[in-house]
Every structure is written in C-alpha cells, then in structure tokens.
Design goal:
104 residues, mainly alpha, 2 domains, 0% strand
Length: 104
Amino acid sequence: MSFARLHKRLFYITSFVLLAWVLGACAITAPVQEMSNARQSIQAAQDANAEKLAGMVLAEAKQRLKSAMRELDAGEYDRARILALEAKHLALKARQIAVSTKTN
C-alpha cells in the first residue's frame, strides 16, 4: 500500500472517529438553551396575561418546566430536553391564546 493511500485511509478513519465523538458529546450535554427558551416563553406568556386568559395551558407549561428541572438534576438530559421543549410550546400556545383573547 502506498503512503498516499495509507495517509488517506488514516484521514478518513480519524475524521469518522472525531465526528462520532462530537455527535456523541452533543447528545449528552445539558439542555441549557432549551431550558432558557422555556423560561423566556413562560415569562412572555405571563406578560401577555396568560395566567388569567389561558391559565390551564400556562400551568401545564410551568409543570413541564419543573419536571425538566428535576430530570436535569438527575442527569437525564434527553428527557429534560424533551420536557423543556414541551414547556416552551405550551407557553407559546398560552401566550397566543392570551393575545388572541385580548384582541377579540
């Protein structure tokens, strides 16, 4: 085997291992951004008076965020990420309900 072929093969193997490591590291990191987004969405819903106009939906968003924090503390990052995303979407829904109720 020529040096060029060996060098190329080593390059591909190294690249593959590095890519696998990076992807694996991304999967096990804490969902910091997702948690922050959920908190901000809940705050935006509260600012839109969703507590009064979409209380049940907002309460469910807050509950999902609490569950996400518990999962985060337990090191269950994938589950925490899912719950934080659910909290964000529920908060956005509560805000939309509140905003559309005000305009009607």
